[in-house]
Structure formats: C-alpha cells, structure tokens
UniProtKB/TrEMBL annotation:
Organism classification: Bacteria, Bacillati, Actinomycetota, Actinomycetes, Micrococcales
Top-level EC class as recorded in UniProt: transferase
Swiss-Prot/TrEMBL catalytic activity: alpha-D-galactose 1-phosphate + UDP-alpha-D-glucose = alpha-D-glucose 1-phosphate + UDP-alpha-D-galactose
Gene (name only): galT
Domain Galactose-1-phosphate uridyl transferase N-terminal: 93-223
Protein name as catalogued: Galactose-1-phosphate uridylyltransferase
Length: 390
C-alpha cells in the first residue's frame, strides 16, 4: 500500500500544454500535490510562494462498507465532519494566502488544483501489483469492508471569493477545461482507480459549504452505481446508444445549444425541473481524449449554457454539473463523455425535494415537461448572450 504523498517540494516542473496553458507542479506543507494552471494570457509571474504552514498529518484513508441490499459501497470518511462551512471572505480557504488567512493556496493563481485535505477516497493507493485484487469488489456479503483507495482533488476556477464556472471569462474557462483533461489522464493512471469524475456543486440549496468558485474531481476504486446501470443499458441496447440519443435529440424540439463539436439538450425523460445534457458530437470517452478544437468550442458553449441557466430567474440557480466519463478499463468505445446538469429549482422560490417516491423508491415524477423547459432555456440563453456575451 502506498502511503500519503512524498516529501514536500516547492516546484517539480513547469509544462506548457497545446492550448498554451502552463502547468506548474508544487507541494503543500503536508506533502499534498498542488498544481497551478496559468491562463494562456496570464499576467502572473512564473514563481510561486512556498507553503510555510505547520500542518497536522493527513487523516487516515477511510474504509468502505458494502450495503448488502444493493451491493453499493459506502465510504465512511469521518474526517469530512471537520470541513469549514461558509467562512467569511477574509478566511476563505481557497483564496490565495495572506498574513491573516493561512489558506490552502500559497500564491495568487488563475486555476489551482490540489489534493483535498479530508478526502472521501484516498490518499492511500494500492501497490501496483495489488491493484487488480483491490478492485475486485463484486459479490454480496455481510460486513464486507475495503480501503477507500483513490484520490479527491479540489479545482479552483478563480482566486475570487464568490462566483461559479459561469462567472469566469472565456480564457479562464479554457484553462479549467485543460486542467480537467490533464487531471483525468493523471488520475486514470493511478493504481486502483476505476473511474474519474469532475463535477461542480453550486449553491446552498445543493449543500455547498464554500462560496468560492470551485469544483472537485473524485477518483473511485470502483465503477460507480450510476455507471453500472448505464453499462447494463448499453449491453441491452447496443454500443450506439449515445450516438442514437444524440441523433434523436437533434431531430426534436429539446435542443438548447448546438455547435460544430457539442450539442446541449433537455433529455426526453428529464427527472429534474432543470436538466440539461451536453454531448460531444463525435465519440470521446473522457476529457483526456478530447481534441483542442473540442475544448475550444466547449469553453464558449458551456459558459453560454451556464449563464442561460442563471438567466431563467432573477438570482443565481443552484445546480450540480456532473461530467460523466467512461471507466478507465471498460466500455470506452461506447460510453461517451457527457455533462448532466441538474437543478432542483422549479420556480423563483420553489425547490423540488426528493421525498418518499424519489428518495426511497427511485420512482421519479417530473414537474415540468422537458419541451417546455427547453423552450424557456433557449430564451434564457438568448437573453444571457445579449446581456453578457462570451
């Protein structure tokens, strides 16, 4: 078993990506990896201040327990109880460090990615020779336990205290997308990792504990239950499932944005009051395999989509932006990278709560016809384009 990260080092490397985004690798005081991604048009100097804090040792890797009724694995990560909840701006843990704020990031930045101090998975990883055995989590039994191997990272979209992905500018959006691609490749190569999941939670109604514009990336030691259900659907329908869904939506009334490389639509059987899926027009399994042209267009279309979602009402909309990627080792030719953006907001002052039927039985009831919501979203995107063009 590999332990926590190795001895701290101030700078390991600097690397320029094809988008001219510069990647700079550092270490935090407790050995966690910190990576700066500088915008193509950055005004920041190349040097970064070291992290001189005195930090406690990282918490031990959590333990997963299996629910024998479903087969799901539940990570019991008690250290997450100590997370900071809605701190004032002066104590923002994702802002650049100041004398009065010993935050997680020592220097000013454009985009910063670092290992979560209290992760749900990791920091331990299985030894390379033991990775296959560690990932053998099939079967059902009572009182089954396994280490919560993996890695969890925080992705800071901006040094600003408040905002979300939709509030950053186009160059910065392109930097974040480059960071997602870089981290997807790196995390997928870690021993024991089966799936990599970038996502953004936005808004107190979703349970967000920090106002700072940021997302996360989870690296799981198993294929997630949602993806297992998708695999079952593909195995039953056939490997062309995503291509056929996209063709069907392009011929229908629910498309809200369409580009050369990406299409966004409200799905035929939307569960949530606001639900939008975004697919690449050509098959790619994850961000690491997207082309520069796909990333360039996404930096525009994704901003337009998020700003349109915010333009539906007079104040910002809470959402979960979930970027589903193919597992590391299966169905990579049939599972397509796709965004599923969902929000419980069903009116200016109304939220959809998951009560008995949805939460207990998984039997959903939709509140708004998908065709109606698609029409509203197209109008909101047009409004946002006029008021705040990308």
């Amino acid at each position: 078993m590999a332990d926590s990260p190795t001895t701290p080092a101030q700078t390991d490397s600097a690397q320029v990506t094809p988008a001219r985004v510069t990647k700079r690798v550092h270490r935090l005081a407790d050995g966690r990896e910190l990576i700066y991604f500088d915008d193509a048009d950055t005004t920041l100097p190349p040097d970064r201040a070291p992290d001189t804090r005195v930090l406690d040792e990282r918490p031990p890797t959590a333990t997963m327990r299996q629910d024998p009724l479903t087969g799901d694995w539940i990570s019991i990560a008690a250290s997450r109880q100590n997370r900071v909840v809605m701190p004032p701006a002066a104590l923002d843990p994702l802002a650049p460090q100041t004398p009065g704020n010993p935050s997680e990031i020592p220097a000013n930045y454009d985009v910063a990615v670092f290992e979560n101090r209290s992760p749900s998975f990791g920091p331990a990883l299985p030894a390379i020779e033991d990775a296959a055995a560690a990932g053998d989590l099939g079967g059902i039994g009572l009182n089954r336990e396994a280490p919560s191997y993996g890695r969890c990272e925080v992705v800071c979209f901006s040094p600003e205290h408040e905002g979300a992905f939709g509030s950053i500018h186009r160059s910065r959006a392109r930097t974040v997308i480059e960071a997602w691609a870089d981290r997807t490749a790196a995390l997928s190569a870690l021993p024991g990792v089966r799936q990599v999941f970038p996502f953004e939670n936005r808004g107190a109604a979703i349970g967000v504990t920090l106002q700072h514009p940021h997302g996360q990336i989870y690296s799981y030691p198993y294929v997630t239950p949602r993806t297992q259900r998708l695999i079952a659907s593909i195995d039953e329908y056939g490997p062309s499932l995503f291509a056929d869904i996209l063709a069907s939506e392009l011929a229908g009334p629910r498309v809200v944005l369409a580009g050369e490389h990406w299409t966004a639509f409200v799905p035929f059987a939307a569960r949530w009051p606001i639900e939008v899926h975004l697919l690449p027009n050509e098959h790619v399994p994850d961000f690491a395999e997207t082309t520069a042209e796909q990333r360039d267009e996404l930096s525009v279309l994704y901003l337009r989509l998020l700003r349109g979602v915010d333009a539906l009402y007079d104040d910002p909309t809470p959402y979960i932006a979930a970027w589903h990627q193919a597992p590391v080792d299966t169905h990579r030719d049939s599972i397509r990278l796709n965004l599923q953006l969902t929000s419980p907001r069903r009116g200016p002052d109304k939220l959809k709560y998951l009560a008995g039927s949805e939460a207990a039985m998984g039997a959903w009831v939709g509140d708004i016809p998908p065709e109606t919501q698609a029409e509203r979203l197209r109008a909101a995107i047009a409004k946002a384009d006029e008021e705040n063009p990308v």
